[in-house]
TrEMBL record:
GO terms for biological process: proteolysis. Belongs to the peptidase C14B family. PANTHER family: METACASPASE-1, METACASPASE-4. Residues 64-350 form the Peptidase C14 caspase domain. It comes from the Eukaryota. It comes from Paspalum notatum var. saurae. Residues 39-63 are annotated as: Disordered. GO terms for cellular component: cytoplasm. This is Metacaspase-1.
Length: 362
């Protein structure tokens, strides 16, 4: 069992092995001394203890599948988005109906909203509000106790940003970040933390899929390799391993991430795709690829997503009605109209060989 603590000097989140009295930060080198760790988790399969300080126990993960689905609307603020909660609802529906994820193996994080219902019940649990603390603890829960054969999913729809990197482990000099609901007061979640929380702990035989529908999200998990594709469909893998030599891959498991755009691009929520209500462009196109039977390989999904976004950006007539089975469950309401989409979905992985052509499965 691991617990999260902040470095005493640079505040970088660190994972403390059970029983360790101190830990050295790989970023600044400081040693942080801590109190004794809490008792270990129940070693039986699927038994997950509550994350420290996270209130009531999260739902138990049954069998081999579990997911964290996060949609943030930033309602009643100048950062408000229209499609993110729709994205979260659609993703949960896809996971349960197409990929057989049990309902109670999915942690759903979104703001309490009178007009948004999850399984016909208003979301009022304070531990399921997408604050920085709750997202961190949900990521911790996602990988806790995972065993060979497990399939994990992390989906995020909300704002993303960048901030200057001073450790030298970013090719472009910037860290990518996710913006929790309370990011203006509590700060953002940096890609280094996401990598430490849900990528590096993955043991052999465990597979993680991340779907990040946010601005500047190309390398939001800090995975070592990025698939760069041109408009003709030709692709090459870029090496994003840090010059410091620090390994940003897994502990033997598999991690693959679809993101809404490149690190230097922005994403959009839009009604131009569904013709009914606002959705995140990346989430819509991912689900559409699955619904249309274009999800046989990682490469076919990426090609389908990029084609749909490109066609929609060039002509407003593409995409409507493509995911009828999911769109019908959405609440029709106000939309953000986007005149054109200028984002290119990306694929990143902890490995390069055969990932593009590998069969896709959750």
């Amino acid at each position: 069992m691991m617990m999260l603590i902040d470095c005493s000097r640079c505040r970088t989140p660190l994972q403390l092995p059970h029983g360790a009295p101190s830990i050295r930060c790989a970023i600044c080198g400081a040693i942080t001394h801590v109190a004794p760790a809490p008792p270990a988790a129940d070693p039986s399969r699927g038994a997950v203890q509550p994350a420290p300080g996270w209130g009531p126990p999260p739902p138990p993960a049954h069998g081999r599948k579990r997911a964290v689905v996060c949609g943030i609307s930033y309602r009643n603020s100048r950062h408000e988005l229209k499609g993110c909660i729709n994205d979260a609802k659609c993703m949960r529906h896809l996971l349960t109906t197409r990929f057989n994820f049990p309902d109670d193996s999915i942690i759903m994080l979104n703001e309490s909203n009178t007009f948004v219902y999850i399984l016909a019940e208003e979301q009022t649990d304070p531990y399921k509000i997408p604050t920085k603390h709750n997202i961190r603890m949900a990521m911790y829960w996602l990988v806790q106790g995972c065993q060979p054969g497990d399939s994990l999913v992390f989906h995020y729809s909300g704002h993303g940003a960048q901030q200057r990197n001073y450790s030298g482990d970013e090719v472009d000099g910037f860290d990518e970040t996710l913006c929790p609901m309370d990011f203006e007061t509590q700060g953002m979640i940096v890609d280094d933390e996401i990598n430490t929380a849900i990528v590096r702990p993955l043991p052999h035989g465990v597979k993680l899929h991340a779907l990040i529908d946010a601005c500047h999200s190309g390398t939001a998990l800090d995975l070592p390799f990025l698939c760069r594709m041109d408009r003709s469909g030709q692709y090459v893998w870029e090496d994003h391993r840090p010059r410091s030599g620090v390994w940003k891959g897994t502990s033997g498991g598999e991690a693959i991430s679809f993101s809404g755009c490149d690190d230097n691009q922005t994403s959009a929520d839009t009604s131009a795709l569904s013709k009914i209500t606002s959705t995140g462009a990346m989430t819509f196109c991912f689900i559409q690829a699955i619904e249309r039977g274009q999800g046989t390989t990682y490469g076919s999904i990426l090609n389908s997503m990029r084609s749909t976004i490109r066609n929609t950006g060039e002509s407003a007539g593409a995409g409507g009605g493509a995911v009828t089975s999911l769109i019908t469950m959405l609440i029709t309401g106000g939309s953000l109209s986007a005149g054109g989409l200028r984002q290119e979905p990306q694929l990143t992985s902890c490995e390069t060989f055969d990932v593009y052509a590998k069969p896709f499965s959750l």
